[in-house]
Amino acid sequence: MKGSVLLVALFVCASLISLPNYAVSGLLTNGGFETGTPGWYGDTATVIEGWTRWGSDGWYHTDYNHTAGGSKAIKSWSDSTGIYQDFAVTAATQYTVSGFAYAPSTDTPVGWDSVMKIEWFNGASKLSEEEVGRFISGTDSLDTWKEIAGLFTAPTSADTGRIVMFLTDANGETANGGSIGWDDMDVDVVPEPGSLVLLGCGLAGIFLAKRRNG
Ligand SMILES: [Ca+2]
User: Fold this and answer.
1) What angle (nearest 5°) sits at the alpha carbon of residue 136, between those of residues 132 and 141?
2) Cα within 13 Å of Cα(162), Cβ side
């Protein structure tokens, strides 16, 4: 009997300890771009819930959605266009940031990279920024969604994070490049390390072992 209790306790502890490996609770609104009114970025009728866009060389569309369950994504075709979303953060806390980029072979993207970055703010003051990753034109596969992801720590005094996606003329291409799409963006807070859980499980294990032996 006591042995089975110990086994159950160990199982629960093992489950709890494994939790910090997984991010929980998405912080973005409409990360899959499924909510809104598709259209050209320059059109005021285009509404992408949760997101702010700039420039006019972009499109909120239904062309190349990432997941089978959805239908919409965004794309841009010039470095004068981008999109971002802010989210509240806790200073000195870790966050996972991820998303998917796509370039169709029917619209060759030679010369243009699509970049995802995260910016950190305290109120309106920008503290710093970090690149999450990029779709590298001429290197990354066409017609295949590329996951871009990273683990970041909000700076001390940060209260806001901003995920940003845009094109950059990294390879010096001056003519119009091709289109690059984005979909299924996600930001998650990483739970505190399981040190307290480990400590608690260790004490519980010692307690149960003593009862079992005593
Ligand atoms: Ca989508």
Assistant:
1) 115
2) 20
Q: Cα(38) to centroid of ligand 1, in Å?
A: 12
Average pLDDT, the chain: 84
Rounded to an integer, the average pLDDT of 72-101 is: 93
- Contact residues for 109 (Cβ-Cβ < 8 A; gap 6+): 103, 135, 137, 138, 142, 177, 178, 179, 180
Question: Would you kindly state where each structural domain of the chain is located, as residue ranges?
Answer: 1-22+194-214, 24-190
CA-CA-CA-CA torsion for 46, 49, 51, 52, nearest 10 degrees?
40
- Please give the distance, rounded to the nearest whole angstrom, from the Cα atom of residue 48 to the centre of ligand 1: 12
> What digits encode the pLDDT tens for the residues 101-138?
998 888 766 678 899 999 999 999 999 999 999 998 88
CB count, 10 Å around CB of 118? 22
What helix, strand, coil percent values describe the chain, rounded to 5?
20, 40, 45
Architecture of domain 24-190: Sandwich (2.60)
* CA 100–ligand 1 middle distance (angstroms): 10
Question: What b/e readout covers 13-34, taking b as 16+ CB neighbours within 10 angstroms?
Answer: beeeeeebeebeeebbeebbbb
Per-residue pLDDT tens over the stretch 2-20: 566 656 655 555 555 555 4
Place of tokens 């899959």: 32
Residues whose CB is under 5 A from ligand 1 (ion)? 32-33, 65, 70, 72-73, 183
